[in-house]
């Protein structure tokens, strides 16, 4: 056709770059292969903005991710299945807490290790949990009803 | 005196008639184009040729547009997010903004500059030099040989280009975030992948296909209507770009409001 | 074919363009195998007459008959069948500038008749030889040829399918006198060789004398004068006379 080969060449480079970055995204974005870790469950009264795929952290360091969130029909508790990296051994009396980095987003499960010498096993449950704090609810209460005494403490 | 009184009405009347005429002509044109796209015969060679010229040769401009847009978007979201301690939301919003909105719209706009004008000029020049008439007398329907291959190629390649722009745009955001905003490259990638839903990408690609039709059909429509030699061809190219640009934004709004309806 | 059915006939044709009746009651017919040249000044409706015969325009009144039947109109299958029997040389040649010369010449064979490329190319090269162009031009693009050569390529494209009827739209416009004469010669030769009916519109009387069996003068939207080639110099019709005199070399 035409002897202008620069355009096709640049086009090929763009395509190549996109292909490489896509591969990187998919590989790096899925860096924690699910089968490596072990499963724990935790039941929360309120998960707030927590979504499947969010981080599980200990002392702010990511050690796993939230695999599944479902409602337990009889207790109305949210059951979260956590995938935790195998080298992270957690004491039986650890506490799982739903928290977030900022006002918007960044929700994750923070685990505070306990003092027990026995460790949680795969499939075990973290008994001590603290659900998400409804920040806006709190603020709302504070602003609207400063004098209401009958309101139960949260 | 009577003329002065009637002047505004004459003007409005002329305007309305003009709009009706062009809408009518456009509907007729689109109808014939769609008919030519879906019924034999198809000129395969032309479709491939146009797909290369519309799709592959647009990659450089699409790539550049996307990488800079992604980078600028990341910077803006970082600053904006900083106002309420939500800087870490950059990857998610960049991914969402690029896939749902910016990649399809920007690709379509760049192509209305690159492709719609070219099509309008090509077909306009062919009209002016009687090549379209010549084609008819050679038993070949110009709608099948000229218009349909361009429109089909546009509808097929714009989603592909948008897919590339999605990746490159997110790449632009990733680059600037990791190089100058202190994001961890892998965390950024992970946030993007785990946040994006299939529909974010799919809706963008659907938009792109519709824009592909708009861009190519507008180019062909204005080229086909071109009259009056070189000046007419220039006018057709300008009109093609303006019309496709405006229609892209309008359609984008309509499609977005339809897609985001809950 | 009976005497009653001329190859091509304009019957009471009227066409209004931009509020002006360009053609008004045009009656003209042409017998099989004859070469008719329509002459006339610019703006007298010559192009419109041709476009109507090609079915690229529709008359506002009256009809154009091809082989005794009215033209079916552009989007009709029968029209495209009619086009298979005709060849057209356009004023500006109207070659497809993104295609190679042989693809231009073989356009109908390639895109309407589904002829294999190698055979279409052979046919194109043969047609090019008929218009005295060598096979070396086959792979060039139209923009690489001179105006006279482009005209020849246009002629090759018109004759490639051995048509029944040929149309020539101002075949010598924009060419120098020598090239114009050779194009006229070629046209006359090809029409004779193919034995087909031909319609030419032109304002070039030199060319008209070379090509024509019959000549018709179009003036005021209708045929003002009609006669054989030899009658051109004999007639006393003032409109013909003024055209003839204008075409003579100045002394």
Helix residue percentage of chain C: 25-40%
Mean pLDDT of chain B: 92
Helix/strand/pairing class of chain B, anyone?
A: mainly alpha
Spatially, the strands of the biggest sheet of chain C line up as 6-7-8-3-9-10
Largest interface: A-B, 28 and 30 residues
Distance between the amino and carboxyl termini of chain C: 48 Å
Rg from alpha-carbon coordinates of chain B: 22 Å
Q: What's the helix count of chain B?
A: 9
Helix content of chain B: over 70%
Radius of gyration of chain C (Å):
18 Å
The geometry of chain C reads as: globular
What is the N-to-C succession of helices and strands of chain C?
EEEHEEHEHHHHEHEHEEHH
Pattern of helices and strands of chain B: HHHHHHHHH
β-strand number of chain C? 10
Q: Estimate the global geometry of chain B from the Cα principal axes.
A: globular
Low-confidence stretches of chain B: none
What is the count of DSSP helices of chain C, taking H or I runs of 4+ residues? 10
Q: Any idea how many domains of chain B?
A: 1
Q: Can you tell me about this structure?
A:
The complex is a heterotrimer of chains A (154), B (262) and C (251). Chain A has two domains: 1-31; 34-133. Chain A is built from two helices and eight strands, in the order H-E-E-E-E-E-E-E-E-H. Chain A has helices at 6-29, 135-144; strands spanning 38-44, 55-58, 61-72, 77-84, 95-100, 107-112, 124-126, 128-130. In chain A, strands 7-1-4-3-2-6-5-8 form an eight-stranded mixed beta sheet, with no helix packed on it. In chain A, strand 5 and strand 6 (107-112) form a beta hairpin. The model of chain A has no long low-confidence stretch (mean pLDDT 81). Chain B is mostly helical. Chain B has one domain (44-259). Helices cover 87% and strands 0% of the residues of chain B. Chain C has 251 residues and is α/β, with parallel strands linked by helices. Chain C has a domain at 97-161. Chain C has helices at 46-53, 77-84, 101-105, 107-111, 117-130, 147-159, 177-194, 205-211, 231-234, 238-247, and strands at residues 8-17, 20-30, 35-39, 61-66, 69-70, 86-89, 165-169, 197-202, 214-219, 222-228. Chain C is globular, with a radius of gyration of 18 Å. Chains in contact: A-B, B-C. At the A-B interface, helix 1 of A face helix 3, helix 6 and helix 7 of B.
